[in-house]
Specification:
By secondary structure, the chain is an all-beta fold. The protein has a single domain, classed as Roll (SH3 type barrels), CATH 2.30.30.30. The protein contains no helices and five strands. Strands 4-3-2-1-5 form a five-stranded antiparallel beta sheet, with no helix packed on it.
């Protein structure tokens, strides 16, 4: 999708608009996108599950993302793109 959408409803043709659904696991976020980690199983990275960060770089040939985390004390990490999801809404605080 590319925007912005028109500010006035007059210039939109809602009858021609469609909703496209794409599995989140096939979407590669752009640099700067807020993300959340999930499905990490190794001892060295499982503590990052559920952690929020920003994507700083993406290596297509290595299929890895470099993430800077929001939480204080967490070091930036290189994560497999399959373990990164775009963060559309902040999770509820526990």
């Amino acid at each position: 999708m590319q925007g912005p959408l028109p500010a006035d409803d007059e210039s939109r043709n809602v009858d021609e608009e469609e909703t496209l659904t794409v599995a989140s696991k096939v979407i590669v976020p752009l640099v700067g996108t807020p993300v959340i980690c999930h499905g990490l199983r190794s001892r060295s990275s499982s503590h990052l599950n559920g952690k929020i960060g920003g994507l700083r770089s993406y290596s297509e040939d290595r299929n890895r993302c470099f993430i800077h985390f929001e939480e204080e004390g967490l070091e930036p990490a290189e994560i497999n793109v399959g373990s990164v999801r775009i963060l559309f809404e902040l999770p509820e605080e526990r």
